[in-house]
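re the bet — no i am not wrong, look at it urself. input seq straight from the record:
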Amino acid sequence: MTTYLTTAEVAELKGCSLRYVQQLVHQGKLEHTEKEDATNNRIEYLVPLTALSEKLQLKWEEQQRRKLGLEPSVKASLKKSEKELNDDFNSRQITLSDLSYEQRDEIAFWSGLIQEWLAERERNGAKYGKCKVDEMFIGAQKLRYPDLNISADILYRKYKAYKNGDLEALIDHRGGHNKGKTSIPKRAWDYFLYIYLQENQRTVSRCYTKTLEYMREYYPEECADIPSERTFRRQAEKIPFCETALMRRGKKYFDDHCMPYVDRIYDDLHANDIWVADNYTCDFTSKGENGKLHRLYLTMFMDAFSGMAVG
C-alpha cells in the first residue's frame, strides 16, 4: 500500500516553502504522480512517501503516531549493513505507511476508545472498582456502537497492542489470539502461587478466578496472554509435593510426610528396651484456681516393641 502526500504536506515535512517543492516536481527532481482535481479542474501533484529520504519517512511516521495517540516508536541508526537491513525487512512490524486510510481510521478509533476507557478507570476506579468500571464501559460502548465487536478480552488485547505500538493487532479481528497457549505471564503465575500456597487450601478454580480479577484490576494489558484454567491446573500439578505439603497443610503434615526418618529394626528388640515419647498441645484451655487460663499439653510414653502406652 503506497502512501501519497500532497506538495503542501511534503513542504511541511521538509520544513521548506511550498514553492520550492513545486519547483522540484516541475524539474523532475522529485518523483510524483498527477491527479486531476475535479473541484477546480486543476492538476494536483502527489508525492509517494517512499520517494522521500528515510529520515523524512521516519519523521512522517512519528507525526502520524502522535495524531493517533500512539506511543513513539524506537528507531535504530539509519546506517546499517545489508544483512541488518534484510533482517529488519524480514522481521519488521508494519508501519502506518503500509496501511490504508480505512485501517488508519480503525487504529484512530481504538486509540481514542482506549484513552476514554483509561480516563474512566482513573475517574471511577476507586469508587466502583476497576473491574466493575470495565463492565460498565463495555456495556456503554455496545449501546453507543451497536455493530462494534467488544468484550473485556478484546479490550485488554487492544490495550496491550496500543501500549506496544503493535499496529497490526489493533486492526486484527481474526480472534483465537491465545488458542493453544501454554505459557503463563510471570505476574499472573506469581499471584496464583501466592494465593494457592496458603493453608486455607483454595481450589485451583478459585485461585484462577481470583488471579483473573487481580490482573484485570491492575494489569489489564497482560490479560490477553493469560491461558485457560487447564493450563494453570497442569502447572499446579508440577509444584513439588513437599512445597505444597508445607505451605497448604502446615508444618506438622510436612514433618510427618516429607522429613527424613529411620526405619527401626525389631529383630533383636524386646519389651521395655526402648520407650518413645511425644508431646501434644491440646486445642483447648483450662482455668486454674486463680482464674488464670492454661494451655494443656499431653505427654505420652510408648513401648517401641509392643506399641503399648506405658505412661
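see?? The beta strands are 4-6, 33-37, 42-48, 275-287, 293-303. told u. also The radius of gyration is 35 Å. so pay up
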